[in-house]
Amino acid sequence: MRTRPLKVALLGCGVVGSEVARIMTTHADDLAARIGAPVELAGVAVRRPDKVREGIDPSLVTTDATALVKRGDIDVVVEVIGGIEPARTLITTAFEHGASVVSANKALLAQDGAALHAAADENGKDLYYEAAVAGAIPLIRPLRESLAGDKVNRVLGIVNGTTNFILDKMDSTGAGYQEALDEATALGYAEADPTADVEGFDAAAKAAILAGIAFHTRVRLDDVYREGMTEVTAADFASAKEMGCTIKLLAICERAADGASVTARVHPAMIPLSHPLASVRGAYNAVFVESDAAGQLMFYGPGAGGSPTASAVLGDLVAVCRNRLSGATGPGESAYAALPVSPMGDVVTRYHISLDVADKPGVLAQVATVFAEHGVSIDTVRQQGKDGEASLVVVTHRASDAALGGTVEALRKLDTVRGVASIMRVEGE
Amino acid sequence: MRTRPLKVALLGCGVVGSEVARIMTTHADDLAARIGAPVELAGVAVRRPDKVREGIDPSLVTTDATALVKRGDIDVVVEVIGGIEPARTLITTAFEHGASVVSANKALLAQDGAALHAAADENGKDLYYEAAVAGAIPLIRPLRESLAGDKVNRVLGIVNGTTNFILDKMDSTGAGYQEALDEATALGYAEADPTADVEGFDAAAKAAILAGIAFHTRVRLDDVYREGMTEVTAADFASAKEMGCTIKLLAICERAADGASVTARVHPAMIPLSHPLASVRGAYNAVFVESDAAGQLMFYGPGAGGSPTASAVLGDLVAVCRNRLSGATGPGESAYAALPVSPMGDVVTRYHISLDVADKPGVLAQVATVFAEHGVSIDTVRQQGKDGEASLVVVTHRASDAALGGTVEALRKLDTVRGVASIMRVEGE
Ligand SMILES: NC(=O)c1ccc[n+]([C@@H]2O[C@H](COP(=O)([O-])OP(=O)(O)OC[C@H]3O[C@@H](n4cnc5c(N)ncnc54)[C@H](OP(=O)(O)O)[C@@H]3O)[C@@H](O)[C@H]2O)c1
Ligand SMILES: NC(=O)c1ccc[n+]([C@@H]2O[C@H](COP(=O)([O-])OP(=O)(O)OC[C@H]3O[C@@H](n4cnc5c(N)ncnc54)[C@H](OP(=O)(O)O)[C@@H]3O)[C@@H](O)[C@H]2O)c1
User: B14, B4, B70: which is closest to B35 by C-alpha?
Assistant: First the structure.
């Protein structure tokens, strides 16, 4: 074993960074044995230098992250600051000054992954980010390496723990969205400003990263269709139950049937209770992968939290250090397939639509005609009525999102349709 | 991209090998793009040269596997013959003649993994075998790489599809073992001689491989306690149901509480229906991993079959080819922890014991005394009796296997105990 240590600069020492530092200390011998050389924490960049940080040598702490990554003797920079800047500039500066990088930054990777990979390649360095998607769950490495000899057709996952906690609460207690969110906030599962989670931004970033890796193409954040879960109601859960389903916020990346394009989207959807993703409870994450040869695989575990995320960061750190010792680099970006990303209108799936309609004869015929005119074929219809008001629940066969959109627009124009109470996609069948 | 192809020798062209060859042809462009060089099938060794093999150029087929691996121009040998010899000698010969090796051979890896890894290291070559455990499910790579910065404490899995199919059938239909086995055989899930599966030999080989990788130590096949599932009865399933459990054949690798030793075992066990492994249906496999930082992870998918297994083989092939191009080798055996493997008697778990007893006063007191004398504490007892015959179902708290063994031996000596109908471990709580 080499005795000269590999030097690690830690950028950020918050929820994730503090756990990375802790495990680097407590597991130092194991890390050294697994890497083939000891690793040394050479510097820790933070915003507030005077905060007491247990187990961190104060002489290592600096607010000058730029100077730290420019030192020139750093082997690996671990970026766990988050956000776009200064993280982006720090990472590219690190490459230019000879370091490889491990990051947990999904927002940055989803937005600028291509440029960062290019910077890594130019400098012959590694960029690893297993922790950026689904925390502790090994997903990037299995997709990029284990399935490298296979053709992935679909990735379907619960990749945001906050929203899964909320939806699970709504499902199990009948609570409304706000009540469930309040509980998530009180228990620390939701941040004070939960927008990134509940509006699906966080999941969309992960979908972009996953789609790119799964299909060997480039998927930008803007390519991902995104719908949050703030409008999911207790009534939606009741409807889902009647269908033998539950509701999950899903990230779905698909290769088109002809193989010539891909789609990526995040939205709430009904899935059958028999689907393995339906039983993913609380803040857990799980991702389903379908490929030509392997068939259906599922990966399940904690999608966030300081120590699970640190586990993923440290797995990458070991890999990058090993690469460094052997003078090699790991598999970088693989976007050779260069497939176009189709718009949401091209996505084909099933739909569950609840309509408030006048309770009089002929309404069903009118509604059915509209579906037929738009080429959307109906699977089942359920009518419930009393006192001149009625509701109509329509479940369709597979149709394009564009066709469904046209159908709904036309339905809204019918005199007998008082309103479209909800539209939800049905997945996982 | 390099235009000179990497040369692959395929040893064996049966269920798995024929799929490897097929995908190498159909996915040639993707493989080339992902590796950075084309791969060429340079030779195929089989036993029966005259068998028609669709898609295989007959001029590549040979019965002289030894000559093929000695050719000297082979970059990667894919060993999918199975069994100990000639596979073992072919693999070491391959290393000596400059090739790296990808294998799906769990029996060989479990028996001779250490020697094969040593041969790979001596020659500076790679030995990869993702397909040897749980077919298509990425497991070796996540354990060896993704969790390389973490400390794994437990691996608990369903790693044999044949037995899971049989047990699932017994559970869902109430069938007995023989009936379920017959159905598995008729559907091609069980081989004509099912011994390796139903007696747990196959699962034990996988347990040895998993324990070694998870705990960075060496676990030999002989170190694995093994009990098959041929004696599981419909009555056991009925008892399991009463406890809110089902029965699975589990491979369990554990680090002792003090961290100083490990155990590895394969046996049928009751697990709660709420445990994610309880809902693994049919011939699917799933493995639960518990580690310090990541917490609980689960990996699920098809554990066997030609094309799923080929997916894993090809993932390894891509990795090994990439290593070859960069002049590096991947992470090899990591056995630095050198932990002793404790005998089964040291394993601590819970037990479900059914006794046939005389239906007279004082029997329960006698039985309870025996448990107490052996330091095995009882959680619940259920008594059912009629016509002078009764049964007593005891569920214990956690106790060592040695203590339980002593208890059962003493119980058998009681006049009032007519027989010990079944003993089953209870796991996953
Ligand atoms: N938390 C999770 O469960 C989780 C899961 C997966 C991925 N991630 C990702 O991991 C990254 C870090 O998340 P986190 O939860 O650990 O965040 P956090 O708790 O807010 O910590 C951020 C850290 O960065 C430091 N920092 C902020 N701005 C800085 C600057 N300009 N220069 C130097 N240091 C700066 C902060 O310093 P102070 O300590 O002085 O404030 C703090 O130590 C993010 O990309 C996040 O998306 C987090
Ligand atoms: N099948 C699965 O689902 C699965 C899953 C995971 C792992 N595996 C592992 O994969 C390996 C292969 O399994 P398999 O199911 O593909 O076996 P298989 O169908 O029996 O194929 C074995 C192949 O090896 C050839 N062979 C046998 N002895 C040979 C010799 N002395 N020299 C050259 N070739 C020889 C056979 O030739 P002929 O074609 O001429 O008979 C045949 O092509 C085993 O280690 C197995 O444990 C299999």
Answer: B4
Nearest to A331 by CA among A230, A213, A239: A213
The confidence score (pLDDT) of residue A387 equals 72
**Does the beta carbon of B12 sit less than 6 angstroms from any atom of ligand 2?**
yes
Mean of the pLDDT values across residues A140-148?
97
Q: How many Å apart are CA B323 and CA B300, to the nearest integer? A: 28
pLDDT of A319 over the 90 cut? yes
- Measured from the CA of B79, which atom of ligand 2 is nearest? 11
Nearest-by-CA chain B residue for A303: B294
Is any atom of ligand 2 closer than 6 Å to the C-beta of B45?
A: yes
Amino acid at site A338? A
3-class secondary-structure state, position B287: strand
- Tell me if A14 CB under 6 Å of ligand 1: yes
Q: Is A342 left (phi over 0), alpha (psi -120 to 50) or beta?
A: beta
Residue A19: its chain B contacts at CB < 8 A?
293
Residue B193 burial by CB count (10 A; 0-12/13-18/19+): exposed, middle or buried?
exposed
Helical segments of B254-400, H only: 306-326, 363-373
Q: What is the pLDDT of residue B302?
A: 96
Residues B361-367 have a mean pLDDT of 91
Other beta carbons within 10 Å of B249: 26
Task: Please tell me the pTM assigned to this model.
Answer: 0.96
How distant, in Å, are the alpha carbons of A128, B41, B144 from that of A287? 19, 34, 20
Distance B14 CA to ligand 2 centre (A): 5
Q: Is the pLDDT of residue A242 over 80?
A: yes
Q: What is the CATH number of domain B345-426?
A: 3.30.70.260
What per-residue confidence (pLDDT) applies to A147? 97
Token pair, residue A104, equals 């947990």
Q: Once rounded to an integer, what is the mean pLDDT over residues B8-27?
A: 98
**Tell me, what DSSP letter sits at residue B260?**
S
A82: left (phi over 0), alpha (psi -120 to 50) or beta: left
How many angstroms separate the alpha carbon of residue B18 from the centre of ligand 2?
A: 9
Given the cut 0.90, state whether the ipTM is greater than it: yes
Of all ligands present, the nearest one to the C-alpha of A307 is 1
Q: List pLDDT tens digits, range B196-250.
A: 999 999 999 999 999 999 999 999 999 999 999 999 999 999 999 999 999 999 9
Which chain A residues are closer than 8 Å to B301 by Cβ? 294-298
Same-fold call for B140-302 versus B345-426:
no
- How far does Cα A108 stand from its chain's mean position? 13
Closest to A13 measured CA to CA, from A82, A76, A73? A82
- Looking up tokens 């909320």, which residue turns up? A166
CATH level 2 (architecture), domain A140-302: 2-Layer Sandwich (3.30)
Residue B427 CA, distance from chain mean position: 17
- Is the distance from CB of A218 to CB of A338 less than 8 angstroms? yes
- The fold of the A6-133+306-326 domain, in CATH, is Rossmann fold (3.40.50)
Please say if the pLDDT value at position A359 is more than 90: no
Please state the rounded mean pLDDT for residues A279-302: 96
- Supply the mean pLDDT for chain B: 96
Could you tell me which residues come within 8 angstroms of residue A137 by beta carbon, excluding any fewer than 6 positions away?
A285, A286, A287, A299, A300, A301, A302, A303, A312, B297
User: CA-CA distance, B1 to B332, in Å (whole number)?
Assistant: 27
* Cβ pair A134, A143 in contact under 8 A: no
Residues A208-239 have pLDDT tens digits of 999 999 999 999 999 999 999 999 999 999 99
pLDDT at B137 over 90: yes
All structural domains of chain A with their residue ranges: 6-133+306-326, 140-302, 345-426
CA B13 to ligand 2 center in whole angstroms: 6
User: Rounded to 5 degrees, what are φ and ψ at A138?
Assistant: -65, 120
